[in-house]
Amino acid sequence: MDMDIDKLTRAVAVSALFHDIGKFWQRAVKGDEGLSLETKKLEGELCPDWGRYRHVLWTSEFFEQFGALFPIDVSESLTGDALDNVKNLASRHHAPKSPLQVIVQQADWLSSGMDRTKAEDLKDEESGTFREKRLISVFSGIGSGSKGKRWVYNLTSLKPDESVFPFQEEKMSDLTGEYKKLWDDFIEEFKLLGVLRDNFNVWIASALSLLEKYAWCIPSSTMDVPDVSLYDHLRTTCAIAAALLRYHFETGTLDKIEDIKDRDRKKFIFINGDVSGIQDFIYMLSVTNVKGASRILRARSFYIYAFTEGIISYILKEIGLLPASCIMNAGGRFIILAPNVESVRNKMEKLSKEISLWFYDEFSAVLSLNISYDVEISGNDLMRENFSKTLIRVQDSVEERKKKKFIDILKEGARGFTFDDLFEGLRRDGHCRYCGTYPAVEEIEDEEGEAIKVCRKCKSFVDIGRWLTEVDVISYAGVNLGLGVPILRGKVYLNFHKLSEVNIAKYGDKIYHLEMLRYFPGFIYPVKFIANYVPRWANEERSIYEEVRELKQDWEEAMGRTKTFGEIAKMGTLDSDGEGKPMLGVLKADVDNLGKIFSVEFSKNMSISKYVTLSRSFDFYFSAFLDELVREKYRNIYVVYSGGDDLLFVGEWKEIFEFAVEMYKKFRKYTTENEDITLSAGIALIGPKYPVNRGAVMADEFLERSKSFKENGKIVKDSLTIFNTTVRWGFLLDELIKWRDMLEGWLISKDSNVKTTFLHRLLTYQRMAKRYYEDGDIEGLRFTYLLRYDVARNLVEIKDGKIVKGREERDKLFELVENNLRDKYRKLWLGLRIPISYVIYKYRGKKIKREA
Known about the structure:
Elements: H1 5-17, H2 21-27, H3 37-40, H4 43-46, H5 55-66, H6 86-91, H7 99-112, E1 151-152, E2 167-168, H8 176-190, H9 200-215, H10 230-250, H11 257-261, E3 268-276, H12 278-282, H13 294-319, E4 326-330, E5 333-339, H14 342-363, E6 368-372, E7 376-377, H15 387-402, H16 407-410, H17 420-429, E8 442-445, E9 451-454, H18 456-470, E10 473-477, E11 483-487, E12 492-497, H19 504-507, E13 511-516, H20 542-548, H21 555-558, H22 565-571, E14 584-591, H23 594-597, H24 608-633, E15 637-643, E16 646-652, H25 653-670, E17 679-686, H26 692-707, E18 710-711, E19 714-715, E20 719-722, E21 725-728, H27 729-748, H28 756-775, H29 783-794, E22 797-799, E23 802-805, H30 807-818, H31 823-831, H32 833-843
Parallel strand pairs: 17-20
Antiparallel strand pairs: 1-2, 3-5, 3-6, 3-7, 4-5, 8-9, 10-12, 10-13, 11-12, 14-16, 14-17, 15-16, 18-19, 20-21, 22-23
């Protein structure tokens, strides 16, 4: 075929992206509502059998009614065949006749991971209860941890709150009304897309974002176990269709239907990217916590996301693919589905070297982006029975690539093994005040107006950190559009915009990709939730500013700026007239056994759509929900990063602890209380002047302890490590927090003799018990009678033969001693350091005001 392949790619991508939009509309109406007479007459042509797969009629009607809003002519013939237009490619995917229509059909099937031509799959889902079935949470199908319970989602637009959490469905009901409201809201926003028609990339990215917002909760199919959303099915169908088209175009088989249907041929590759060195890069702070260093932490974390997104945009542009072709992008990892053709392999070889050179020069090899694209994939490899094995092959390729960082440039002598220019710069200019690693070639003012010398990178991070607080939109373009930072030596620019200043018509095709940082009413640009909250001085906090401020600024200067770590820590002491020791908590957490969760043995019927659903769902919890939770409830926590399946937060230590507890509880609910999906965490407590990078390393060590925690000789994970003690989350929530509240209640009560000196002695008894239980130290057993003696002598008061003070303390503490051989109480003694230490730290140095 003699045709413009880029134009054809866009047309096929749009067709595939909206091929099942009719399912959404059909479920929002009764009978044939919404269909014109002309569309009804097409049933014999569009449906494989009369009365079957009738959703394609609503797909056809959708293009008929809203075709003018698309960036391409949906009725224009693509091949000379009048039926080969966007509208027909989308609506004829169940009864295809032309090669292009077959491509959309095959992409639809491969996305689902099943061959629907099998007799057992030819069931009519559009009868009976198809309007009553909700989307089942993909998490409930992991292992057997949800125990067969039916966890489903409400039909609601996507937003970072608990309205998008799954719930246990007791009985099904007609959902037509809920579908109608969702559909009407979708259409109102879809109509706004027309203003973006002049920039195809922005339009289709906005369409993807809109589909995510409204179709994330809609089952793509109501047959079997409906646990893949319509959004994820549409996105992956679009990605597969684009790759299939370009494969058959380049191999000269675009007119051969049997070749298009061939699933044995290796037509695809996964272009995998994995950023290494993220923690070393983020934690790259100088040995002292200089003023203002905190403000670049978030910028560094954001920058990793941003350069990854920018590189993805550049790769997609260079190999002729579209935003939907990136089927996963979270936590410094991405996957692009591409055609297995010579032009793409040659282009990727060139791009890989170009990217490696930039990382080597820009970050002195601290960071690297490891790209692999050597695993060839057939259609059969994408089928449900094979897909998890395909993922293993791909992951093995990525791991092998990570072992050979920069090998492609070093083996050719493009760069040496020494950094002469770096050493010469350090000798000449000195070290950066912030990172202490690169030459100090830029002069800026710190938060108190003092001139300091920093490196070029830290200067850009200071700018990024400031811009992030002032703008609403970021874009990736081939030029600097104002506030821009170059990526890949200017091949891509990361640009920052206020919403009112975005001008799509002016920028034209210079923009590769554009994202709003949150939803804004009336604006239809793509939305990317990024966890980037930092505590700022708000107007209502003026009364406490003078008590905690670190910088020489009056309130007018300080309002709106980021709180320093010292100020955050000091705010934790304000409940006792400013006394006590200010402390920070550094929280690090991630999902346990992630590889197992995605494995073929664990995840039933893993298709490419299901994989995308699972990845997106994890990322939404960390990047969207947790960020919003902090904004609303934990205002003195600094989000360093959160996305993919892990996080790093810094904040006032008590607030960090309370957040960690709620984070875990919400995670359990979000993942259907599945016992096979767990989370581990570590919290390090540090002083406000202690380098945060070292605190993060400590938190990471505690996290590793949580992940190696054993019970009865078996590693169980699902734990928290704090105060140098590791416990299962469930035990912490059920028992240890009760003990914390009880100990604190005794300490501040006028009716108790418990003092902090007793808590220190109780901590000594706990250490003795730990030695006895874990090491078999018989001397440790002395804790039993020492504690009884201590309680009787110091806590209990007896008058006229009756206990007048200390009865509860005696009963509870004696209970610990008398039952010390029972498993529950052994666990209590081993974990008791957490509640004791919590109360000691909270009241250290404070004048305790005892309450009646």
